[in-house]
Amino acid sequence: MNKNSADQAFVRETNLSLVLRLIHTQSPLSRAQLAVITGLNKSTVSSLVDELLERTLVHETGVNSIGAGRPATLLEINPQAGHIIGVELGVDFVSVAITDFLGDIVWQQKENANPSDDQDKMISQTLQIVQHGIAEGKRKNYRFLGLGLATPGTVDLNDGVLIFAPNLHWRNVSFGRIFSEYTELKVYVENDANAAAIAEHSFGAATQCQDFLFVFAGVGIGGGLFLDGKLYRGRNGYAGEIGHFPIMAEPAQNICHCGNRGCWETYANQHSIIQRVQARLEQKRTSIIPAIMTEQNSPLTIPLIKQAADAGDIEALESFAEAGHAMGQGFAGLINIFNAEKIILGGPLSLAGEYLLPAIKESVARHTLPEIVQQAEVQLSLFGPDASLIGAAAIVADDVLSHPTIVSGK
Ligand SMILES: [Zn+2]
Q: What's the pLDDT tens digit per position in 315-356?
């Protein structure tokens, strides 16, 4: 290809991507509306839309007969344009899903994993589940667009290598190579909190947001930051380690997973809630929690505390509220720094979101600057515990939105 035709191909793909993304975020849209929004002339838009139809990325859906003028055919994304394999490697589980092009899960398999197992064992367990997914896809004639993998830790995106995951104690794992050799698909690897933020931006609560934060709360507290419509990674990809924001180091305080004292997450993570409940039980408060533990033969866990809260147990409710207040203080700091439009809470602790959220909102209202707080909204993720998994798939979909010619025609 000479330079001129290479330039033309680049412009064509850029315009295809522009139109495809608009249909993705604002559908249904007509060709005339696309021409107005993009500033491209109508015949260019028609030709671009024809190509997107040919590649089966969009389809026509009904007619817009509102208002004056000729009724216009509307366009929307074709969810069946292709399917995607999403993989989430958690600290103590692996989850694999097949989603359609719009991130809806059509098949999923989740298994517990033993964090003390060695790396190879956990990877081969994951590959086996992926194999089941691919077999399912073959049966249903799916066309796979790629495989996305979300993992805790820092990731080299270009080479698909997990550099370091402190919670897994893994270093330099070539996920990209391992999974692409096994599946012969293009593989994308991303940090789990970043993946979740991408899911919210592509398919979830933040499709219209330029500046928002996804907060992943569980064992620790991690974040994915979208600033000016782009995921912010920082100098070496470590941006978003919001849980380790030092609040105040006191000698009697819990040591954080990072080894320090005074990290914000030690006041608001899973363990802090369990500790708050334990402290209350030690004061011999009246609570149904010990009875539930005996009945289920279970240690104190977040789902168990949630169950007690559902039954109106005051100790459970107050423990969630205390942790919610601590969480909200951190959120307020983040809103003050980034002037974020939204903070979306996800991860395992979002299970107790209904009990955390009122306290979080109260704390945010109290500690955020008045000028900023009016525009900031705190809400729960629409994806429950699957935000990172759906995010893994969203990364593949996003690459197609950027490079529509990856997908061949009919
Ligand atoms: Zn820390």
A: 999 999 999 999 999 999 999 999 999 999 998 899 999 999
CA–CA separation, 243 and 103 (whole Å): 28
Instruction: Read off the pTM.
Output: 0.87
Parallel, antiparallel, or unpaired: how do β-strands 83-89 and 144-151 relate? parallel
Q: What spacing in Å lies between the alpha carbon of 243 and ligand 1's midpoint? A: 6
Q: How many residues does the chain have?
A: 410
> What distance in angstroms lies between residue 357's CA and the mean position of ligand 1's atoms?
23
Tokens of 138: 């073959």
Cα of 324 to ligand 1 centre, how many Å?
18
Output the CA 184–ligand 1 centroid distance in Å. Answer: 38
Q: How far is ligand 1, taken at its centre, from the CA of residue 299, in Å?
A: 25
How far is the centre of ligand 1, averaged over its atoms, from the C-alpha of 24 (Å)? 38
Alpha carbon 107 to its chain centroid, in Å, reads 18
pLDDT tens figures, 235-267: 877 888 898 888 876 666 778 878 888 889 999
Band (389; pLDDT cuts 50, 70, 90): very high
Quick check: 56 pLDDT over 70?
yes
Does residue 214 sit in helix, strand or coil? strand
Q: What is the DSSP letter of 254?
A: P
